[in-house]
Specification:
The strands form four sheets. A three-stranded antiparallel beta sheet has the order 3-4-5. The chain has one domain. 27% of the residues are buried. The protein is built from eight helices and nine strands. The chain is mostly helical and 357 residues long. A hairpin with a 5-residue loop joins strand 1 and strand 2.
Length: 357
């Protein structure tokens, strides 16, 4: 009998691969595969905890890549024309003042730009990379939100919420600790970065709708001072299905972001709750305060009431999924509009009618 070599991917020791571990919104990990439509998080090859299904990160990234190219096409008339310029573009033009790969100071950058003032398409190129930075901000912030949500559930599921460990009686107990503080801080940052995406997307749409056309000098972005509160200035109104449409989850994101930045915490002391039965954890959760009509329930100075047992860890996956769905629609519409703006700008001039005798 001839021995056949083992596949190259087979483990050399013959040991079975480790079983998948699924993090759950309830805060208790499991190894059995979730049912169809059930929310869970799995560890990807880079170590991040990602949704088991329904994550739109890659679809959003794909639209952003198209937007990068669409800005070049809109400004130069054809992406091929931009590609022809690439070999001659000094490295400081796409990097200085935009990322840490350039060590130029502001003064040196200004001097270099002045020295190249006769370079063809200099100001168009400078403006292009500024526009692309708007897109890059959306890409990176979207990844931040995805990875922070995974980190929230990693902590809730896998970390000891109180140290040193003690024997826990059956029932519900609350705990606070450095781990719990980190858990709630991560939740706060998720809301803050979701709101950042509202600001960044508003800037992007405003820039597309007011794309610069005068390049006799290096133009300033039209969206420099634009934030989400200025969204009506984009001309999109309350576009259905987009991030500009009123309602959830935008209302909650605005409320929580403003609370944690301007007015305090989601609780007077960061707490996580744990349900124990027969010595085993059945559930862990974090509470959100009561809200009505997009506002915290208030009596005089009191705004943190918890009568509804709103467990944010159970709602957060759907909140982020709903946000991503609106974000994707917004970017798709922005891309279509940018292509339209570019086509209008570079369409061939109409031929003049023949003159009579």
């Amino acid at each position: 009998m001839t021995n056949t070599p083992a596949p190259r991917s087979a483990p050399s020791t013959g040991s079975a691969p480790p079983a998948l571990l699924f993090l759950t919104p309830h805060g208790v990990p499991r190894q059995d595969r979730p049912a169809t439509g059930e929310v869970a998080y799995v560890r990807d090859p880079q170590g991040a905890w990602r949704p088991w299904h329904g994550d739109l990160l890659y679809e959003i990234e794909d639209e952003c890549v198209r937007l990068h190219d669409a800005f070049a096409s809109a400004l130069f008339g054809d992406i091929r024309r931009y590609h022809e310029l690439l070999p001659a573009i000094p490295q400081f033009i796409p990097e200085a003042g935009l990322n840490s790969e350039s060590s130029l100071s502001r003064e040196s950058f200004e001097k270099f730009v002045g020295a190249l003032r006769d370079m063809p398409f200099l100001n168009e190129l400078l403006y292009l990379y500024d526009c692309r930075k708007l897109v890059s901000g959306i890409q990176e912030c979207t990844k931040e939100v995805t990875f922070l949500v995974g980190e929230f559930y990693r902590t809730l599921n896998l970390d000891d919420l109180f140290l040193p460990s003690v024997q826990e009686p059956d029932g519900v107990r609350w705990m606070t600790s450095p781990v719990v503080t980190s858990l709630t801080a991560t939740l706060n940052v998720i809301y803050i970065r979701l709101h950042s995406l509202l600001d960044y997307t508003t800037k992007l749409v405003h820039e597309i709708e007011h794309l610069r056309a005068d390049f006799t000098s290096y133009p300033k972005l039209s969206s420099s001072s634009i934030q989400f509160g200025d969204r009506r200035r984009t001309g999109w109104g309350e576009a259905s299905g987009t991030l500009f449409e009123p309602g959830e989850p935008i209302t909650e994101i605005e409320l929580v972001r403003n609370l944690v930045i301007h007015d305090g915490l989601l609780d007077d002391m960061p707490k996580a709750y744990k349900v124990v039965q027969h010595g085993q954890a059945l559930e862990k959760f974090v509470l959100m305060p009561d809200r009505t009509g997009g506002r915290l329930d208030r009596y005089k100075n009191r705004t943190l009431f918890y009568s509804r047992e709103d467990k944010i860890n159970l709602r957060l996956p759907n909140l982020v999924a709903a946000f991503q769905a609106k974000q994707l629609v917004t970017l798709q519409r922005a891309l279509a509009r940018l292509v339209e703006v570019g086509n209008e700008r570079h369409k061939p001039a109409a031929a003049e009618p023949p003159q009579g005798p």
